[in-house]
Each structure stands twice: as C-alpha cells, then as structure tokens.
Description:
It is a single chain. Helix 10 (about 265-275) links the parallel strand 9 and strand 10. The chain has helices spanning about 35-45, 50-55, 60-65, 100-110, 130-145, 160-165, 185-190, 195-205, 225-235, 265-275, 295-300, 305-310, and strands at about 50, 70-75, 75-80, 90, 115-120, 150, 175, 210-220, 240-245, 280-285. The protein is globular. Helix content is about 35%, strand content about 15%. The longest helix has 14 residues, at about 130-145. By secondary structure, it is α/β, with parallel strands linked by helices. It is built from twelve helices and ten strands. The N and C termini lie far apart (about 40 Å). It has one domain: TIM Barrel, CATH 3.20.20.70.
Amino acid sequence: MPFTPTRDRIDPEKINTTPLRRPDWIKVRAPSGETYEWLQSLMRSKALHTVCEEAMCPNMGECWGSGTATFLMMGDVCTRTCGFCDIKRGTPSPLDWLEPERIAQAVKAMNLKHAVITSVNRDDRKDGGAPIFGMVIRRIRELHPGCSIEVLIPDFKGSLEALKIVMEARPEILNHNVETVPRLFKVVQPQDHYEWAAATLSSAKKLDPDVLTKSGIMVGLGETLAEVKEVMRDQRSWGVDILTVGQYLQPSKKHLPIARYYTLDEFAEIKEFGMNIGFRWVESGPLVRSSYHAADQVRTLSAVHKQLYGE
C-alpha cells in the first residue's frame, strides 16, 4: 500500500541541534589535482555552475578528479528553501537561453561519455524551466553524439505539460529525488509535496517506458528505517528503476542537523531490500549522491541509448 503523508510533522523547535561525531567510515577527499583545476577553469570560462560546488557534494574530489561533473542550470539561486541544501535561495535572474549551448560545448570539451544535468527550482516560471532541459539534451546530442544524458529535474509542481517537454527529448535517465520520507517533508523541503514527486516519476515512466527513471533518498534526518522502506516501496510502485540512498551531511550550522549516522550494515540492508523488491540498480552508502556511478548505470541498463546508438 503506498505510503501517504501524515499530518504529524516535526516541530523545528524540538530538533536536537547538538553536533554528532562523524564516524570513521565517512571520509571525504578534498578536491585537488590538475584535472580538478582544469574543470574549475572550464566552468568559469563558460559561466557555468555545477551542483558539485553549489551543494558542497562530498564526492567532488573523486568525481572531478576523474573528469566527471554535474551541471547546474538556470542560475545558482533557487526559489525554494530546503533545509538540507546549500544552494542560494531568493529571486533568480531571467533564464539564459544560450546556457544549453555552453553546457554542450563543455560536455564536448570534457569528452564525456555520460553527462548529468540538473537545475535549481524555478517556481517563478509556469513551465519550471522545462524547455531549457529539452534544449540542452538535444544540443548535446548534436554536438557530442554518443554521450548519454541524465537529467535530474525539479518536480515542476507536478505539471504533466512541463514533464512532457523534457521527456520528448528522450534523456537516457530521468531523475527526480524524493529526498526524505513524507512525515519530514515540510521540515526538510517546505515547498515540496510528496504527491508532486509521485506524479513526476510515475508519469515519466508512462510517457516513455524505455527511459530509465531514478530517484534518491537521504537518511539521517530523523526518519526510521521502516519509513525508508515504505518510501522505497512507493518508488517501485511508480516504476522507478534506479535508487540512490546516502547519508545526509549538514553543510553548515544554519542547515538541518544530522539526527543520526546510518551504519554500513544498514546501508547494505537497504540495498538488499531494494533489489529484492525489484529495483534494477541500487546505490546505497554513506557518500552516495544522485550522480554517483551514473555512467555505469546507464551503460548497463539503458534501452534508449542502445536504440539511439546501437551500443
């Protein structure tokens, strides 16, 4: 039975703000090296943003060192105020319709085999900025054929018309993160709705069954393991193929505190449970984030890429 949001919500005033000691198994490598510096220079020269930097991803050192980055479109200011995210909040600038061209050029310069594209929320627009996603998918295909494309999209407030604009461009992977359990939604992401996430993921699979759908959950915000498993069952009922589960890490003192750290055994249990209920791929670990091992996922699972390029 699908898990539905409860009216019982967490009182922010009662959240424990005492910092927890980080366990030994969570070690983040600081970004460095020639490849990292070249990528940083490339992004600045093309006036591009990466979610790696803006969201302080713990895998930035590993990914940038191997020549992989997740592009952040539509500016670096988000219209939502999620309690876990370090991206700036406020009123964004008008859309830059030349941005898809610059991203495609960067993808070609990096000679990527798999490009991950995401964006801030653009609730200032009825379409949520969906046309920019369609444009960048098509332009990458024109400029750098053979590169698979994953888009991590906002929920577009559940708009089917906005989602259709993205799906018509046929990305290999359509990703939308649920982020947390329904009970914590209004604390973790106040402007989001569980129903919008459900509509986005289930409609994407109905619009094009060949496109892989993907979603992610953070743990350690106060949810129970049972609640995590209920959300996973929901995601499978929506047709989600790929799941990522990682430990929430507090970006700063102004963000939501960590309720607890999950153990390696618990992450292993989550992965086993996910595979048993029918996910085609589960990444579960302390430092797992949305784009972690994304290239491996698409090469192994994507029917769209095989249809387009015969690989």
